[in-house]
Amino acid sequence: MAVTAYAPASTGNVSLGFDILGLALAPIDGTLLGDRVSVLSEQAEFSLVNTGRFAHKLPADATQNIVYDCFIGFQKEMAELGIEVQPVAMQLEKNLPIGSGLGSSASSIVAALAALNAYYGNPLNSEKLLRLMGKLEGQISGSVHYDNVAPCYLGGLQLMLESEQKISLSLPVFDDWYWVICYSGASVSTSAAREILPAQYDRSTTIDFGRQLAVFVDALHRGDRALAAAVMNDVIAEPYRKSLLKNFDAARSYAEQEGALAFGISGSGPTVFAAVDSQQTAANIKLWLEQNYIQNEDGFAHICKVDTRGTQVSEDV
């Protein structure tokens, strides 16, 4: 029996929640904007087949792939529980570009660990599995953080709590908002995007950050769309990271002119997002971004809604 897990794309930060907010995304046209990982069978040696639009960007050596790291991490976790895990044959359908700001590594990690856990009868509960996902993500970024893996796994809009009991809290979302995302085709590494940020921030900036996040969460719970949109302003990363993104200011200007509620950088970039309350406005912004923000054949744009389901696991007999 084979097991397949699909893990959706996500946008970290959502402008005003640096490292502590994340949102799962689902294109309204049904496109699978996320990675799929299958565990096919047990065998003598580990093997991995890469497929999908961005498979050619992955290392040819299976042991250099994050999916292999997930298998080793899961195997060690099971050994601590007294469960022996044999080598397996796996398949990665890589639909997300690497270094896109759409949680590409998180999607592969979450799908791989969800599939492995299901294949072995779900020995890890959701909280333990999520912590393992964060640990594996940390191996790539250099530090454990959950702003992509939590929404990717759980769905919806997640606020990182990271207590001993619970990793994240699910926040309300506005069902009538559309999220236009556009990947330029360029690549921005998380480490490079972090290096461009200042080591310290002044008091007024940190006060603005705290105020905006508090007001945003309150507005979500009270259903105040106008107030929530008004505080979606990135005072931490965007002023510095936008220099890495070609045509960012023009994209923001057009989106705001068209009536976007908010516009910002998805995660570390170069993907940008616009939050809007009209499908026609979303279509206009998507078209402009396709014509003016995309730089090469790898780029794409989608109109999305919030993916409230998160990771989906299926079994193939």
Automatic annotation (TrEMBL):
EC number per UniProt: 2.7.1.39
**Keyword Nucleus listed:** no
Q: Which SUPFAM superfamilies does this one have?
A: GHMP Kinase, C-terminal domain, Ribosomal protein S5 domain 2-like
Keywords, A to Z, come to: Amino-acid biosynthesis, ATP-binding, Cytoplasm, Kinase, Nucleotide-binding, Threonine biosynthesis, Transferase
Instruction: State which pathway it belongs to.
Output: Amino-acid biosynthesis; L-threonine biosynthesis; L-threonine from L-aspartate: step 4/5
Q: Which GO terms describe its molecular function?
A: homoserine kinase activity
Pfam families linked to this entry? GHMP_kinases_C (PF08544), GHMP_kinases_N (PF00288)
Top enzyme class, one word, equals: transferase
Instruction: Pinpoint the GHMP kinase C-terminal domain residues.
Output: 217-290
**Positions of ATP binding:** 97-107
Which reactions does this protein catalyse? Answer: L-homoserine + ATP = O-phospho-L-homoserine + ADP + H(+)
> Where in the numbering of this chain does the GHMP kinase N-terminal domain appear?
66-156
Q: Does Phosphoprotein appear among the keywords?
A: no
Compartments, as annotated in UniProt: Cytoplasm
Q: What does this protein do?
A: Catalyzes the ATP-dependent phosphorylation of L-homoserine to L-homoserine phosphate.
The family line of this record is:
Belongs to the GHMP kinase family. Homoserine kinase subfamily.
Under which name does UniProt file this protein?
A: Homoserine kinase
> What organism does the record attribute this protein to?
Catenovulum sediminis
Q: From the UniProt record, report the name of the gene that encodes this protein.
A: thrB
